[in-house]
Amino acid sequence: MSVINVGLGERSYPIHILHNADYGALLRQALPKTTDLMVVTNDTVGPFYLEQVTASLEKSGFKVSSHVLKDGESYKTVESWWGILSALLERNFARDGALAALGGGVVGDMTGFAAAVYQRGVPYVQLPTTLLAMVDSSVGGKTAINHPQGKNMIGAFYQPQAVVAALKVLGTLPPRELSAGLAEAIKTAFIYDEPFIRFMQDHSGAVFTQDEAVLTHIVERCCAIKAQVVEADEREGGLRAILNFGHTFGHALEAYLGFGTWLHGEAVGLGMCLAAALSLSRNLIDEDYYQCIVKLVAACNLPVKVPDGMQGSDFIRLMRHDKKVRSGVIRYVLPTAPGKVGLFADVSDEEVIAVVERYIRGEYPPS
Ligand SMILES: NC(=O)c1ccc[n+]([C@@H]2O[C@H](COP(=O)([O-])OP(=O)(O)OC[C@H]3O[C@@H](n4cnc5c(N)ncnc54)[C@H](O)[C@@H]3O)[C@@H](O)[C@H]2O)c1
C-alpha cells in the first residue's frame, strides 16, 4: 500500500493505492466527523461493488445511502447531475454529509460537481474503479458534466477529501477500458518522465493480466506526477495544460465519430500520434522518438489510424470548438524530447491540415 499526498494547503488530500481496500477505515480518516454518506455509482459498477463497499463503510460508523446512475458518457448530463442533487434533498442531507463516487471518470466527474454545488459545497471522496480514473480523473479536482454543445463544458474545480484506488476492482474491467486507461498513463510518461516511458514499453502488456506490481507502479507514478502538476497549477493557468497532450486532436476525433463511438482514451492515443507527427514535421523530435510514441500507443491496443473519411480540415473545424481554444488560437501540446512537451500557439491551420493529410497517406516513418 502506498499513499501519495496532493499538497494544496487546506485542500490537501491523500491518494491511497492498494490491492484490496478497507474503504470504511480509510474514509473514516478522511471524513472524521461525517455520519451521512451517499455513495454514487452506476448500474454496471453497482452490482459488482456497492454491497461490499456499503458494508465496509457501515462497519466504520457511516450511515450509508446510495444513488445509482445509468452507465455511460451519454448520461453525463444535467439531468443525471440534477438527479444526484434531488436524491440528496430527498434524504435531507445537511452540509455535514458527504458523497463518495464509486466508478469511473463519468461517475467521478458528476459526483464531484454535485458535491461542489450542493448547499454551496459538501465534502466528497473518489473511489475510482477504472484504470483511467485511477491514473487521471480521480485526482486533481476537475469536475464536470457535458452540455449538448460540448464535453465537460459545465463544471468546477473542487478537490476531494481523499482518493482510494483499490486495484483489485480492475479485475472486472473490460480490456478495451484497460487500454483507454493506459492511454492516459503513457501520456503521463510522455509529458513528464522518460524512465516511465521505458517502464511502459517493457510492461504495458502486463496490465491485461492484472499484474499487481505493474499496476501498482503505473498508478503510483501517474498519481505522483499528476499531484505535482496540480500542486504547481491547480486551476490550469499554465503548466497543467500539458496534461492535455493528445487531447486537442482527441476531442476532435471523439466529436467527429460521435461521443462514445471511440473511448476517450482511444481518441487520446491517436491524438498523441498526430501531435507527435506535428512535432516531427517541425523537427522538434527525431524519427526514433516519433516511432517510440506511435509504437507504444499501438502496443496498448489503441488505434493509430485516422478513421475512414476524416480529413485534416475536419480536425481544425472540430478543434475550434474545444473549450481550450483561447481567442481563436489553438494551442498544441507537442513532444519536444522523451518525457518532455511544450505548449505551442504558433501552429497554423494549414500546417496541421498538411501534417494530418500526410499522416493519413502513411508518409510518416512506418511504425
Ligand atoms: N476530471 C478529470 O480530470 C478527467 C480526466 C480524464 C477524463 N475525465 C473524464 O472521465 C470520463 C472517462 O472515464 P472512464 O474512462 O473511467 O469512463 P467510464 O466512467 O464511462 O467507465 C468506463 C466503463 O467501465 C465501466 N466500469 C467502471 N469500473 C468498472 C469495473 N471495475 N468493472 C467493470 N466495469 C467497470 C463503467 O460502468 C463504464 O461502462 C470522461 O467523461 C472524461 O471526460 C475526467
Characterization of the model:
The protein has 367 residues and is of the alpha/beta class. It has two domains: 2-172, 3-Layer(aba) Sandwich (Rossmann fold); 182-360, Dehydroquinate synthase-like - alpha domain (Dehydroquinate synthase-like, alpha domain), CATH 1.20.1090.10. Helix content is 46%, strand content 18%. It has 13 helices and eleven strands. The chain has helices at residues 23-30, 45-59, 78-90, 105-117, 131-137, 175-192, 194-203, 212-232, 247-257, 264-281, 287-299, 312-319, 349-360; strands at residues 2-6, 13-18, 36-42, 63-69, 98-103, 124-128, 142-147, 150-157, 162-166, 332-337, 340-344. It has a seven-stranded mixed beta sheet with strand order 1-2-9-6-5-3-4, sandwiched between helices. A two-stranded antiparallel sheet has the order 7-8. It has a two-stranded antiparallel sheet with strand order 10-11. A hairpin with a 2-residue loop joins strand 10 (332-337) and strand 11 (340-344). The protein is globular, with a radius of gyration of 20 Å. The model has no long low-confidence stretch (mean pLDDT 95). The structure holds nicotinamide-adenine-dinucleotide. Nicotinamide-adenine-dinucleotide is lined by residues 42, 44-45, 48, 71, 73, 76, 103-107, 109, 129-130, 132-133, 136-137, 140, 142, 152, 169, 172-173, 177, 180, 264.
SSE inventory with pairings:
Elements: E1 2-6, E2 13-18, H1 23-30, E3 36-42, H2 45-59, E4 63-69, H3 78-90, E5 98-103, H4 105-117, E6 124-128, H5 131-137, E7 142-147, E8 150-157, E9 162-166, H6 175-192, H7 194-203, H8 212-232, H9 247-257, H10 264-281, H11 287-299, H12 312-319, E10 332-337, E11 340-344, H13 349-360
Parallel strand pairs: 2-9, 3-4, 3-5, 5-6, 6-9
Antiparallel strand pairs: 1-2, 7-8, 10-11
Helix pairs in contact: 1-2, 3-4, 5-6, 5-8, 6-7, 6-8, 6-10, 9-10, 9-12, 10-11, 10-13, 12-13
The protein binds nicotinamide-adenine-dinucleotide.
